[in-house]
Protein: DUF2199 domain-containing protein
Amino acid sequence: MTTDLGFDCSCCGRRHDELPLAYGAPAPAHWHDGLAGQPGFVLGEEQCVLDGEHFFVRGLLVLPMPDGEDFEWGVWVSLSKDSFTRVTELWDDPARVDEPPYFGWLSTELPGYEPTTLNLKTNLHSQPVGVRPLVELEPTGHPLAVEQRTGIDRARVQEIAELLLHPGR
Structure:
């Protein structure tokens, strides 16, 4: 178990008191503030609809760490209209945990990954009511998919933290 959760930043030289283990995107990559309030465009805390034709659900992409903790990305997944309708129908139903996973496309561009994380194939696994669905990536050679399968170490988590703390460095 790690007792010192802080880190010395290689960008600014300062000591940061903690190493964040979770980040989240407030909206799918295709959303922008100019869409707010337009007919057919809705951005909620957990769901999003673009032009009444593109449907998104917020999920959690978990990367295991060697010390037993998890690093988490809050991401958006695009679903078909039928899948989105089903997710919405079961949103408050405890039986939703018995649903098979829904196929979708990752709709969040995560920093620090090449090539882009947009449009990676996913399976969205329903969780108990009140818990965000888990996002499982297709097991490809993409660096994010590899980290989900094999884990992410503290040095990589620090690299991500530095990238997000100091964008454009």
